[in-house]
Amino acid sequence: MTVLTIKAKHDHLAKVASTRDYVKALAEFVWNALDADATEVSVEFARNPLGGLSSILIRDNGTGINKTRADHDFESLGESWKLQASRTPVHSRVIHGKEGQGRLRFYSLAQKAHWTSSYSDDGDLFELTIDIDADRLQTSTVSEPVPAPDGSTTGTVVELSSLKDTFDWLTSEEARSDFGAIFAPYALQYPGVAIFYDGHRVDPNATIEKAHEFETRPIICPGRVVRDMSLRVIEWKGKVGSRKIYFGGESGVVLGAQAANVTAPGFDFSVYAYSPFFQEIANANLLEVDGLTDPDFARVLEYIRDEVGDYFRTRQAEKSGELIQELMDAGVYPYEGEPKDEVERRERQVFDIATHAVSSYSRDFKKADNPLKKITLGLLREAISHNPESVSRILKAVFNLPKTRQDEFSNLLDKTELGHIISASSLIADRVVALKVLGEMVFEPKHRQSMKERGELDVLVRDNTWIFGEGFHFTLQEAGLTKIMNRISEELALKRAKGAKMRKPDGKIGRVDSFMGRVVPHPDRLHREFLLVELKRPSLIVGRKELDQLEDYVNAILAQPDFISTSTFWNFYLVSGEYDAVVKERITQKERPVGLYLDKPNHRVWVKSWAELIRDSESRLQFVQEKLRIEVSAEEIEVRIAQLKSSILKVETERPTEPPPQAPVASTPEFAVSPQ
Fold first, then answer.
1. H-helix or E-strand spanning residue 256
2. Where is this region: Disordered (predicted)?
């Protein structure tokens, strides 16, 4: 018997031998068997009477380990015989290991590793055993060769015993799938080799749905250019792949793996990337490290994920197309003809993918009759059209889609940017409607003379503060500002009350104008910015009197103790149908925008006509619409106008037959309105 001591310390060997990928640890012994020209290798799990794992065996029919090789290889680390060979001596297959470290991978699984190997020497068959203990990795015990028992053949059995954990997961379908994905390329390359895992043969030909080879392109990394990486993706028919990227060296043998992290709803796949670059990374024992910081490897990994992600988006479209054609033929597809614009084109893309997800994972949908499918898909279309962010919740609540698939769909929705596009489309439609209705309210004779600032104009303006500028698109209500404005309104009304006409029918004093205030969000939490709008009825021509009243109100606001010595800015707007020559002179001063009456360090005062506000708003709206290339149909606009008129103008309007449903308008807090 020979006792061999590796010339390295135990702690170093333990670091080299450790792995969190237990399937990979077992795979190392299988690679060793294949490198020994085995044509059949099996990973077997021995169970105790209670059904738990007692040991793991890796059995092969290779050429075995002779005494000379055992003495050399088990005494050395990194001096394997494979360094001098590129192919196996008998079958001329590519060689996997060259580092002489694979035999130590048992360390993460078991306390002991025992080899029993039979080999041929000058026509005679001999057998020897090798033992390594996890507590003494630097020591290997190699027995003297003895004649092999009658009927023996060459080969090796490795037994891993005294397991460090239960390792029941190793017998699961997931572990078997991961093992199969590792050896699938090898099995494809060498169909005469039979590899078994827990009694199941690795047979990729029976489980491959589709394989795709990517074009080789140079990858520019921070420290180098990787020019020779081959990339392949295999789609599996069932749960075979574990959605990993497997990295191999120049020989095409898998060295390590990382999670794919690729959005591909409905696909089970494995990705294989081969390059000498990965051999370098494997030599540094880095392929298993999560969050690898090597900048070159990180860039290559990003490239792989981008390429594979693009591939599966194309495949998803192909699969969805087949299903969509079936739905069209059945008359349940909720769209007709070609998309009318870019929004509907993107909308259909997401709808088709969501429908494919539903069809793949909802048994109830598959069994449903066509009328029910038509109703269901119609509801799904409405959700995507008007609130795409809610679709993931619908897929869970209605179709019971698994969470992993929900997450994939959410990621896919983010990639299409449909939510942003539909939101922009809905925003444009809402603004077109608001401007059309506002124009009718302030310009049409039948409304212009009777239109009131309270209960009519203010209702429309409070939800459309964007007409004063995009900076006021989002504004907030503040109770404190409301109280202050109420207080000032009462004070000013008392000062101005000179006759009965300033009194309300009940005899109480109040304001006749409509003044509304909003808080404008600001990144500095200590700074406050306000938008205050005084609305005048469209028939009123604003003159000096109204301008003086506005200035009184501005001064009263600014003088309030609530705002003294604070970081505050005010935007005041006086809006009416027309203004006289005196006002025009004051708001058309040189080197100032038209309408700017006062421009002070802490406030600006504007006077605008409805015509000017509407014209400015239409100009901004047209610019956004052209940039986004979004069109809103005339039919949709008419329906929305009818609904808005009905709610604001209190008029009965004839609705078109079967109008498309109204997209939900973003909820905006109420303006703070001074009481009359």
1. strand 254-259
2. 651-676
Compute the distance between CA of residue 277 and CA of residue 279 in angstroms, rounded to an integer.
5
Q: How many whole angstroms from its chain centre is CA 139? A: 50
The position carrying tokens 């808080």 is 519
Nearest to 542 by CA among 516, 577, 593: 577
Q: Nearest CA to 251 among 83, 32, 96?
A: 96
For residue 632, which of 411, 380, 340 has the smallest C-alpha distance?
340
pLDDT (tens digit per residue) in 6-58: 656 666 566 656 677 888 889 989 999 999 999 999 999 999 888 889 999 99
Contact between residue 432 and residue 391 where contact means Cβ atoms under 8 Å apart: no
CA 311 to chain centre: 17
- pLDDT value of position 474: 60
Name the phi and psi angles at 174, rounded to 5: -65, -45
Q: What angle do CA 162, 142, 97 make, to 5 degrees?
A: 80
- Retrieve residue 476's tokens: 């907030």
Global pTM reads 0.48
Pairing status of strand 2-5 against strand 136-142: antiparallel
Give the three-class secondary structure for 74: coil
Strands 528-535 and 568-576 turn out to be: parallel
Find, among 186, 192, 128, the residue nearest to 154 by Cα: 128
Q: Where are the beta strands (DSSP E) in 287-345?
A: none
Pairwise CA distance, residues 531 & 668, whole Å: 15
Neighbouring CB atoms inside 10 A of 239's CB total: 12
pLDDT of residue 550: 83
3-state helix, strand, coil in the chain (%, to 5): 45, 20, 35
Residue 435 CB coordination number (10 Å)? 19
- pLDDT computed for residue 59 by the predictor: 97
CA distance 278 to 249: 6
Cβ-defined contacts of 25-29 (< 8 Å, 24+): 25/105, 25/106, 25/108, 25/109, 26/56, 26/58, 26/105, 26/109, 26/170, 26/179, 27/179, 27/182, 27/183, 27/254, 28/97, 28/102, 28/103, 28/105, 29/58, 29/102, 29/103, 29/105, 29/106, 29/158
Q: How far apart are CA 274 and CA 228, in angstroms?
A: 8
Separation between Cα atoms, residue 365 and residue 363, nearest integer Å: 5
Q: Two tokens at 374?
A: 């038509």
CA distance 575 to 481: 21
Whether 64 contacts 36, CB under 8 Å: yes
For residue 563, give Cα distances in angstroms to 125, 521, 567, 602, 603: 100, 17, 8, 11, 12
Cβ pair 148, 118 in contact under 8 A? yes
In single-letter form, the type of residue at position 536 comes to K
Report residue 540 as tokens. Answer: 């009123």
Residues of the chain falling short of pLDDT 70: 4-18, 76-86, 97-101, 238-242, 250-252, 285, 288-292, 342, 357, 360-363, 386-427, 449-455, 473-518, 623-676
Are 624 and 428 within 8 A, CB to CB?
A: yes
- Name the strand (E) or helix (H) holding 636: helix 634-648
